[in-house]
Amino acid sequence: MTLLSVENLQVHFRTPDGVNRAVDGVSFAIRAGETLAIVGESGCGKSVTSMSILRLLPEPPARLAGAIRFDGRDLLQLPEREMRHIRGNAISVIFQEPMTSLNPVLTVGRQIGETLRLHQGLSRKDAEERAVEMLTLVGIPEPRRRVREYPHQLSGGMRQRVMIAIALACSPKLLIADEPTTALDVTIQAQILDLMRDLKRRVGAAIMLITHDLGVVAEVADRVVVMYAGRKVEEAAVRDLFRSPRHPYTRGLMGAVPRLGAAEQPGAPQRLAEIPGMVPSLKTRIDGCVFAGRCPSATDLCRSHAPALEPKAPGHLAACHYAPKDALAA
Amino acid sequence: MTTPLLAVDDLRKHFLLGGGLLGRHARSLKAVDGVSFTLEKGETLSLVGESGCGKSTVARSLMRLFPPTSGQVVLGGRRIDDLSAGALRPLRRRIQMVFQDPFSSLNPRMRVRDILAEPIRNFGLARNRADLDGRLAALMERVGLPREALSRFPHEFSGGQRQRIGIARALAAEPDLIICDEAVSALDVSVKAQIVNLLQDLQKELDLALLFISHDLAIVEHMTHRVAVMYLGKIVEIGPRREIFLAPRHPYTQALLSAVPVPEPDAGRTRIVLRGDVPSPINPPAGCRFHTRCPHAFERCRTEEPRLDPVGGDHFAACHLDGAALPAQAA
């Protein structure tokens, strides 16, 4: 069952030197209970997409077009008052930086309880009780003591657990996790990824995971959308994507990341595969394929005509004129 | 045996935190607490470990951005940790640094030309104006930037290009050793690969030694010769790349390696998830500093600090479990 569908989303920002097409016609859907990863490098539009779902972008300068359907309604058409019932309730979010996204002058318990009191009308006392339960759920020891502490008294990993507790307090249907482990050390990242996997089983929320780390994607995602320069260039189930990436950008990304253990194998490459050049400016209209300027196999066709996203294998979409296509692709 | 390019012996850096009347009970943060290693010409040694393990403090002490508390630093056979600022100055040319953040490590009001010319002028490397221009052009070519870019300002460049400028600035002084403190960590995947390749090419061409500080173990494995793993101010394991990655001996190294997410959905590895957080370096645990999180800790670990002992060849580990109790474990 489709929980959220983003249809031809466009997010353009008016800037003093022209329109920045941060997201330019992106569509995807998230099914109930699934984990969808959105992967791409800085400026590809992945965070802007998630901010658009929550309608957290100031309009203007942002201008949103397209549709974001959630529970039968188009979030882009909802009045602000109704959006407030959805944020932190049916859809919640975990940000990258647990230090700056918690309020330093409120106790952890107050911050977890805030959403519960607002959305579920709990009393202060009941909300604190529930906050203790939430801290237990996310694996914080001594929750009764911790619930009265302030963010600065917690370590980075614990703060991110608190963020997760806040996000899950109202049992959301969709959890947006924007680079949830990027600021954490690797052993703490392992703890948080384990927690997210475990909670997904127990809570059943769908997760939209935004990340640039292909390792994290491989560990937690069911399906993956690859974005580049504001467009979706590939989408597939996680195994299909890693086994046979179709878009040259996805293949480039995978070649550019060394794999732990690979260096000791015979025939290991001495150099990392580079993607030459850099991401194009989003302020000039790009008529052809957005990746043409850096693609090793680009032709005149690529530079003049944007390739359509089409199935290259069952359930595997890619936007490339030359991506290999299976006979059975439907 | 020839003298190594750099030899660090029992380096310590304690930061005084104040507190206590007349400083009698002043506490100190033992950021680096007895670190020793050597580095040869043309070699890469990587310092790995998590936030607060002291790896950046090692770098900054070597650069003498602050004076070390104790220990020795010997560069090319000459002790440099006790030199006066004036005596050290000409030697600073030999160790240069590339920083993590290419946005804050370049002066926004200087043109690239002036950024690169500064070390050349400081150390009097250019004979005349023409020589300076030639050096600047060669540096730009070496790091893969167009010569015209010399007249531009840092804000006109992307993150990857700025990191190239940072590398060119380090090379301008003609150093023997470049310390890269998380130099590729802030870069996007595709750009990171470009910079890693550039560093490896430069090392080969110029026979540079690199002290590569990073928390990204996959990048480290790709480009290093030797690895030192740090935990709470100490090296817990040091050895050749192959030994560290294929047969790590210290339980912390094993956990660290197993925690790295691998971009293969069916990798099917067993992960050692460490409980809890890194303890505070102000009051580190007694005995082995890792015992509070170690899955194998036993009584002796809580009381007696293990020494960094050889476990075969160039490979050293600081752990009370001997080879029999703790078989080398493939990550």
TrEMBL record, chain A:
Keywords: ATP-binding, Cell membrane, Membrane, Nucleotide-binding, Transport. Its main location: membrane. GO terms for molecular function: ATP binding; ATP hydrolysis activity. GO terms for biological process: peptide transport; transmembrane transport. It is a peripheral membrane protein. Residues 4-254 form the ABC transporter domain. Pfam families: ABC_tran (PF00005), oligo_HPY (PF08352). Gene3D superfamilies: P-loop containing nucleotide triphosphate hydrolases. It is found in: Cell inner membrane. This is Peptide ABC transporter ATP-binding protein. It comes from Methylobacterium tarhaniae.
From TrEMBL, chain B:
It is a peripheral membrane protein. Gene3D superfamilies: P-loop containing nucleotide triphosphate hydrolases. The lineage of its organism: Bacteria, Pseudomonadati, Pseudomonadota, Alphaproteobacteria, Hyphomicrobiales. GO terms for biological process: peptide transport; transmembrane transport. Belongs to the ABC transporter superfamily. The keyword ATP-binding applies. This is Peptide ABC transporter substrate-binding protein. It is found in: Cell inner membrane. Pfam families: ABC_tran, oligo_HPY. GO terms for molecular function: ATP binding; ATP hydrolysis activity. It comes from the Bacteria.
